[in-house]
């Protein structure tokens, strides 16, 4: 049997790249999130594309270069509050809208991202 991965169902590399390209300008412009995202946006976009590719069942690009994702551990130096997690998800939802990502795969992908966002929270809202 040949089952499609979420990566393939989303549209593969092209859609992941479009999503990342739409998403990060929103993040950098968001006053709640922008303090967490300093440095080269292109490098952050590259890493996110690699991670989302692997996260959705595509090639293991992230692990091949950086080792196991261990995203919670990698994000511990940053204050990720419930408000920031919600803002991050809102930017992702807007990016999905921008690129026309629709249907059950969008909902499945977004549900998984909501789980990840919840796991990343490491600081209470003040």
TrEMBL record:
<comment type="similarity">
    <text>Belongs to the truncated hemoglobin family. Group II subfamily.</text>
</comment>
<protein>
    <recommendedName>
        <fullName>Globin</fullName>
    </recommendedName>
</protein>
<dbReference type="InterPro" id="IPR009050">
    <property type="entry name" value="Globin-like_sf"/>
</dbReference>
<dbReference type="InterPro" id="IPR012292">
    <property type="entry name" value="Globin/Proto"/>
</dbReference>
<dbReference type="Pfam" id="PF01152">
    <property type="entry name" value="Bac_globin"/>
</dbReference>
<dbReference type="GO" id="GO:0046872">
    <property type="term" value="F:metal ion binding"/>
</dbReference>
<dbReference type="GO" id="GO:0019825">
    <property type="term" value="F:oxygen binding"/>
</dbReference>
<dbReference type="InterPro" id="IPR001486">
    <property type="entry name" value="Hemoglobin_trunc"/>
</dbReference>
<keyword id="KW-0408">Iron</keyword>
<keyword id="KW-0349">Heme</keyword>
<dbReference type="GO" id="GO:0005344">
    <property type="term" value="F:oxygen carrier activity"/>
</dbReference>
<keyword id="KW-0813">Transport</keyword>
<keyword id="KW-0479">Metal-binding</keyword>
<dbReference type="GO" id="GO:0020037">
    <property type="term" value="F:heme binding"/>
</dbReference>
<dbReference type="InterPro" id="IPR044203">
    <property type="entry name" value="GlbO/GLB3-like"/>
</dbReference>
């Amino acid at each position: 049997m040949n089952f499609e991965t979420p990566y393939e169902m989303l549209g593969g590399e092209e859609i992941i790249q479009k999503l990342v390209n739409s998403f990060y300008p929103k993040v950098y412009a968001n006053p709640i999130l922008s303090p967490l995202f300093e440095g080269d946006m292109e490098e952050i976009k590259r890493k996110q594309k690699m991670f989302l590719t692997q996260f959705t069942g595509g090639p293991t690009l992230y692990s091949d270069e950086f080792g196991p994702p261990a995203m919670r551990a990698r994000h511990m130096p940053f204050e990720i509050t419930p408000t920031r997690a919600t803002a991050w998800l809102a930017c992702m939802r807007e990016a999905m809208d921008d690129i026309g990502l629709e249907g059950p795969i969008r909902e499945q992908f977004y549900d998984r991202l909501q789980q990840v966002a919840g796991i990343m929270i490491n600081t209470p809202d003040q």
